[in-house]
Amino acid sequence: MINILLASHSRKVVEGLREVLVQMAPDVNIQISGGDNEGNIGSNFEEINEIINKYAKDDGLVIFFDLGSAMLNCQMAIDMLDEEKKSKVYLSGTPLVETSVQVAVNASVGQTLEETIEYLENYPVNKLDNLN
């Protein structure tokens, strides 16, 4: 089953969103990273990197983020992976709440990483489109 990482500048945001996802898809592994090392608003590269390295395997890891530096920290951690692990990770630029809920529900009924990527890449609003 697909793993999910929610990366935010606020621990409270991802804790609350994780609560929603677990309610809707209790069997899906939902990891969170929010705030900096001191518990302030910010992004935590070390925590993000550790989670990505741990879950970039098996059925894959889909990452959702809230703001630019969270995205950059996720991308930097992905760039440090070997090619095999990179192929198991997808960084989504879609809306954090809406699509993470849908992906968690889809994962709970067996949607594959490839099917999830197709869904996310065809989502009408993708924040990463402007970067290409």
Question: What report would you give on this structure?
Answer:
The chain is of the alpha/beta class and 132 residues long. The chain has one domain: Phosphotransferase system, mannose-type IIA component (Rossmann fold). It is 48% helix and 16% strand. It contains six helices and four strands, in the order βαβαβααβαα. It has a four-stranded parallel beta sheet, sandwiched between helices. α1 packs parallel to α5 and α2 crosses α3. The longest helix has 14 residues. The termini are far apart. One of its GO terms (molecular function) is phosphoenolpyruvate-glycerone phosphotransferase activity.
Q: How many structurally independent domains?
A: 1
- Please give the share of residues in helix: 40-55%
Can you tell me the residue ranges where pLDDT is under 50 for at least 5 consecutive residues? none
Which architecture does the CATH hierarchy give at level 2? 3-Layer(aba) Sandwich
Total DSSP helices: 6
Could you name the CATH topology?
Answer: Rossmann fold
CATH class category: Alpha Beta
The biggest sheet amounts to: 4 strands, parallel
Tell me, what's the shape? globular
